[in-house]
Amino acid sequence: MSHAASITPVSHPGSRRLDIDNLRNIAVLLLILFHTARLFDAQSWHIKDAVHAGFADNLVRLMNQWHMPVLFLLAGISLAYALQRRAALAVARERVKRLLLPLVFGMLVIVPPQVYVERISPQIANRQSPLDFHGSYFDFLPHIVDCCYPQANFSWHHLWFIAYLFVYALLALPLIALLLRSGLAEKLAGHLAQGYRPLLLGLPVLLAELLLRRSFPSSHDLTHDWANHAHYFYLLLLGWLIGAQPRLEAAIHALLRPAALGAMVFTFLWLAGRDGSIHLPERVIFLCRFAGEVAWLFAFIGWAKLKLDRPVKFLTDFSRHAYPFYILHQTVIILLGWALLDWSVWWPVKFVAVALAATLISYALCRAADSNPLSRLALGLAPPRRN
Asked: Is the dihedral of CA 159, 162, 165, 167 positive or negative?
């Protein structure tokens, strides 16, 4: 994308807002910790280490509360800045190039090694799709388009975010045009940009979860994932509204301290209630989880404005490669986890080793891909700027 707010690369670096850019980059880098933890947590995944670590469970649970919501919110802010510089049709064409093409490439090239490793590991318990395959990777290649995972092999795995973001962006463009023509966006921002009123913007998230989550558990399959669609599409639109209405964004920034306090309180109540440390009604525990999410989102963008609105060594330079890093990192982690399954070492050592190696390898692959026009196109990288 043309602005630095989502994981999509930026076409016009001079127009970046460094606070949003740096926050996005932190969120992408944290994926290394999240997906490395998936090797060791109790839930099924594509590859599992023999060790089950409670730390990994807690890390995954905490990051699940706010991590993908942050990326969708920032993607909406990115959309707002893109629409300030280009017509909606030009933005739509850019999304095809930067989102759809890398998604297709990723499903045909980046994801299949993840599926293959899962298929040739019958000795590993708790595989997410425990179907077995006997043969080399070249033998497996003709089967990568057998549809669909988990019953077969064809999948987008972690690239579901790119698929959803592409669909949401195309759906959002005509809706945004309607909101602008009617003046509803400006009226809404004017009404809510006062005191604690921005917190009301979190209510649709709670409502969507209350009405839909029980019937539509998270699936990432696009056609049956209605709770996630309502949740994430709203956050994309909310991000657009924040990016398009500076006074609303300023009002949210002013709520940094109460938002951070609320996030910690709601998250504590959610975790303590979930574990039975305190007795709360199930619905209250459920609502605390998502109230905490919204509070974290507001706290994060307020904190980024306060602390990250400046060049940060390495972090700001990472902006160009954040998107291909996202595309590549999970495959690298799964291959490393599979290669190191028999390494008998204290699990924190293996965790750190996989996380560090995955970071370095993923970044090196991004830099290598940036040297060739075809690999840049495949991974959604814009052409390098001419001096």
From this structure: negative
pLDDT tens digit sequence for 329-381? 999 999 999 999 999 999 999 999 999 999 999 999 999 999 999 999 999 99
Q: How far apart are CA 115 and CA 147, in angstroms?
A: 12
pTM equals 0.93
- The string of pLDDT tens digits covering residues 139-151 is 999 999 999 999 9
Q: Report the alpha-carbon distance of residue 18 to residue 385 in Å, rounded.
A: 18
Burial letters 298-318, b for 16+ CB under 10 A, else e: bbbbbbbbeebeeebeebbeb
Domain ranges of the chain: 13-111+156-378
Q: Under DSSP, is residue 239 helix (H, G, I), strand (E, B) or coil?
A: helix
**Are 333 and 18 in contact, with CB atoms under 8 Å apart?**
no
Residue with tokens 């006997």: 134
